[in-house]
Design goal:
The longest helix has 27 residues. With about 170 residues, the protein is of the alpha/beta class.
Length: about 170
């Protein structure tokens, strides 16, 4: 089985990583951990010096590299799955497109992606990477909620990571 895990932050205990670690994957399974540095931002000459943009992108790539390496190490060290192969990569581009392209290239059977648990207005304004991936993937997708779930009044409460949506093509 091939599992793609998409993470978006420096937390090596990302809920999607923990969800994969808890799965009883068949012997010989391959897990690929990815993080996407969004490279589709455009600036005018007046708003930012292009050298500053390059420095920012290099810094974001370095942070993403540390995150995927730590997540991969966490999955490799899992004593319940000693026979799984774990690799890591930092991708560039639109997060949903990059995740889906990597899933196709890797031949993923299952994609695990995190969700921040934003409300409807935030999803409308910002979009949802997890929803875009689930809606367009050619394989099964598990959306794992963040440990902080929003309440009706917009406050965040502590909640354990949970599988939000599982979808098969």
């Amino acid at each position: 089985m091939k599992v793609l895990v998409a993470i978006d932050g420096p937390d090596q205990f990302h809920p999607a990583v923990q969800a994969v670690a808890s799965q009883q994957l068949p012997a010989g399974s391959e897990v690929r951990v990815v993080s996407v540095v969004h490279s589709g931002v455009t600036y005018t000459w007046e708003t930012i010096d292009l050298g500053v943009y390059d420095v920012m992108e290099r810094r974001l790539r370095a942070i993403a590299r540390v995150a995927v390496d730590k997540a991969a190490e966490t999955l490799r060290d899992d004593i319940h799955a000693p026979s799984r192969t774990v690799t890591a990569a930092v991708l560039s581009g639109s997060p949903p497109d990059s995740i889906l392209e990597e899933a196709d290239t890797f031949g993923a059977d299952w994609i695990f992606v995190g969700s921040h648990g934003h409300g409807r207005l935030e999803r409308f304004m910002l979009g949802s990477v997890s929803q875009a991936v689930a809606g367009r993937a050619k394989c099964s997708v598990a959306i794992i909620r963040s440990r902080q779930a929003p309440t009706n009044d917009g406050q965040r409460t502590s909640d354990s990571a949970s599988q939000d949506v599982a979808r098969s093509p």
